[in-house]
UniProtKB/TrEMBL annotation:
This is Leucyl/phenylalanyl-tRNA--protein transferase. One of its GO terms (cellular component) is cytoplasm. It is an enzyme of class 2 (transferase). The keyword Transferase applies. It comes from Gillisia hiemivivida. Its EC number is 2.3.2.6. The keyword Ion transport does not apply. One of its GO terms (molecular function) is leucyl-tRNA--protein transferase activity. Functions in the N-end rule pathway of protein degradation where it conjugates Leu, Phe and, less efficiently, Met from aminoacyl-tRNAs to the N-termini of proteins containing an N-terminal arginine or lysine.
């Protein structure tokens, strides 16, 4: 008789190395991904590596009330330069996030395994997508995990084919999340782009308090 392997929980995030790497291996089951995000952990790896799980310290976050909207972006929003929808074409969003070229990055961490796993979470209403359209063409978007009970949104990836498209969608979505009572948006690690939008680094311990 074969016995099922018991589910192995993640080690405490304090065990992560200085870069934030906490564990490797496991799978991308719905159960494991939800366990990860609810404890401040996320997967990030490429096709040549095992699944790597991260919990960096400090943590890049955006408090919705601190969102910075530049004068030029305010003008674009006022003119309704783009159309924004939610959860209308998740697969197109994640496919574009996977193939978009990024400075200093070869290949993608959004493997077929990642796409399949997050599609399952999307069908459960946990992964949300934002689509940005111009003349009926998808020109930008983003997706992430919405922990509704915790009032936290964990951003995963965004893309833009047209200047300002992803920023436009991000600003609109942050305002929507704020109206829904979301207190924090997880941006994972520092980038100048996110910093320009008002995101900042906080200690991991402080971030985890929002998840409790």
């Amino acid at each position: 008789m074969s016995s099922s392997i018991p589910y192995q929980k993640f080690p405490p995030v304090e065990f992560a190395n200085p870069d934030g790497l906490l564990a490797m291996g496991g799978d991308l089951s719905v159960e494991r991904l939800l366990d990860a995000y609810n404890h401040g952990i996320f997967p990030w790896y490429d096709s040549s590596e095992p699944i790597l799980w991260w919990s960096p310290d400090p943590r890049m976050v955006l408090f919705p009330e601190n969102l910075k909207v530049s004068k030029s972006m305010r003008q674009l929003i006022k003119k309704e330069a783009f159309q924004v929808t939610y959860n209308q074409d998740f697969m197109a969003v994640i496919e574009n996030c996977a193939v978009i070229k990024r400075d200093g990055q070869n290949g993608t961490w959004i493997t077929q395994q990642i796409k399949d796993a997050y599609l399952k979470l999307h069908h459960l209403g946990i992964v949300q997508s934002v689509e940005v359209w111009q003349n009926d063409e998808l020109v930008g978007g983003l997706y992430g995990i919405y922990l509704k009970e915790k009032k936290v949104f964990c951003g995963e990836s965004m893309f833009a084919k047209v200047s300002n498209a992803s920023k436009y969608g991000f600003i609109r979505y942050v305002r929507k999340l704020k109206a829904e009572g979301v207190s924090l948006i997880d941006c994972q690690i520092y980038t100048e782009h996110l910093n320009s939008l008002g995101a900042t680094e906080i200690p991991r311990k402080e971030f985890l308090d929002y998840l409790k």
